């Protein structure tokens, strides 16, 4: 299943972020704790390379807590200040403020020594679509200031939000990156709802999700739908079992696989299959190693073609 979604407004968002990044001191990035690597936009690392970084592992209530601790350490070793949070319940909001102040303390003290008594902290809020940025901001500010929704792409323009006299947030629309180098990343984004469902085939996506979970944690599907299958079962057959178990039928007693697929994805996204993390750092290391091999093979093939071309021309 080939997945790519980069609508035109994301190009405008990237340009706007490039133009305004100089106005902020800190970049606060939200990622989905169930897929911390796949939901982290690699383009933002280049954009914010000279800024303080706070990484919020949002939706941590839906992720495996042990896996979340592993990811927290992983990102801390890469220089991020990392905070677990559940934006819906508003947990860890004070920790975000305290962390931002700690990161800015040295700069603030230097400016005050020069006579600047009121030194505002300005932070940019970034993240992929549907990761919970607007919900976080609403909880953080304490009132509804940003639109929220369960579909990606609700926020379409930048907005400055003043928290206190010395703290301002720049909200930005959710943004992906132009090309997923590994389709596993695109699939995981689709599983969690970061990619617009309207462009996806629900049955194909649900089958891919089943295939992934049969490797990662098959018991979550067995236990939720009270079905039996082994790890060599066909994912499509498992989807049929889910439809059968829930009594999803069309006219003529045909299984309603479309409904079963939508229910499976909705229940995963809502946490009804349990607290699940779909990737770990070692999985990413394996994926990056595969990418390196592919790039090496491509470079070798390119060199061979160039050598053959040059030899032909000399002849």
| Average residue-wise pLDDT | 87
Element order, helices and strands?
Answer: HEHEHEHEHEEHHHHHH
What count of helical segments does DSSP give?
Answer: 11
Largest sheet: 6 strands, mixed
**Which blocks of ≥5 consecutive residues have pLDDT under 50?**
151-156
Secondary structure class reads: alpha/beta
Report helical residue fraction.
40-55%
Radius of gyration: 23 Å
Q: Can you walk through the features of this model?
A:
This protein is 48% helix and 11% strand. It has 315 residues and is α/β, with parallel strands linked by helices. Strand 1 (26-32), helix 2 (43-47) and strand 2 form a beta-alpha-beta unit. The two termini are 45 Å apart. The model is unreliable at 151-156 (pLDDT under 50).
What tags apply to this protein structure?
alpha/beta, 11 helices, 6 strands, globular, 315 residues
A few lines on this structure:
With 315 residues, the chain is α/β, with parallel strands linked by helices. The chain has helices at residues 8-20, 43-47, 65-76, 93-113, 133-141, 183-192, 202-216, 219-225, 235-246, 257-269, 281-314; strands at residues 26-32, 52-58, 81-84, 121-127, 159-164, 167-171. The chain contains 11 helices and 6 strands.
Please specify the SSE layout and strand pairing.
Layout: H1 8-20, E1 26-32, H2 43-47, E2 52-58, H3 65-76, E3 81-84, H4 93-113, E4 121-127, H5 133-141, E5 159-164, E6 167-171, H6 183-192, H7 202-216, H8 219-225, H9 235-246, H10 257-269, H11 281-314
Parallel strand pairs: 1-2, 1-4, 2-3, 4-6
Antiparallel strand pairs: 5-6
Helix pairs in contact: 6-7, 7-9, 7-10, 9-10
């Amino acid at each position: 299943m080939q997945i790519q979604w980069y609508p035109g407004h994301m190009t405008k968002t990237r340009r706007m972020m490039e133009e305004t990044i100089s106005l902020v001191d800190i970049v606060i990035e939200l990622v989905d704790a169930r897929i911390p690597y796949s939901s982290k936009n690699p383009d933002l690392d280049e954009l914010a390379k000279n800024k303080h970084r706070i990484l919020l592992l949002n939706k941590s209530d839906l992720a495996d807590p042990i896996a979340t601790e592993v990811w927290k350490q992983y990102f801390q070793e890469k220089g991020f200040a990392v905070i677990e949070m559940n934006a819906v319940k508003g947990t860890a909001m004070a920790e975000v403020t305290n962390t931002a102040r700690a990161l800015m303390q040295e700069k603030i003290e230097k400016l005050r020594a020069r006579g600047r008594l009121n030194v505002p902290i300005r932070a940019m809020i970034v993240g992929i679509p549907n990761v919970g940025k607007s919900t976080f901001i609403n909880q953080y500010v304490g009132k509804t200031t940003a639109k929220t929704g369960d579909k990606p792409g609700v926020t379409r323009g930048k907005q400055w939000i003043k928290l206190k006299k010395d703290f301002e947030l720049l909200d930005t629309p959710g943004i992906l990156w132009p090309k997923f180098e590994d389709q596993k990343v695109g699939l995981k984004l689709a599983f969690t709802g970061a990619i617009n469902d309207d462009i996806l085939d629900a049955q194909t996506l649900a089958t891919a999700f089943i295939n992934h979970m049969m490797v990662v944690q098959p018991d979550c599907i067995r236990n939720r739908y009270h079905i039996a299958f082994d790890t060599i079962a066909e994912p499509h057959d498992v989807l049929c079992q889910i439809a059968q178990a829930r009594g999803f039928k069309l006219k003529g007693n045909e299984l309603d696989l479309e409904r079963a697929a939508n229910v499976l994805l909705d229940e995963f996204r809502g946490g009804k299959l349990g607290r699940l993390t779909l990737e770990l750092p070692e999985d990413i290391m394996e994926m990056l190693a595969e990418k390196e091999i592919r790039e090496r093979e491509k470079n070798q093939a390119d060199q061979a073609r160039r050598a053959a071309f040059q030899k032909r021309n000399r002849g």
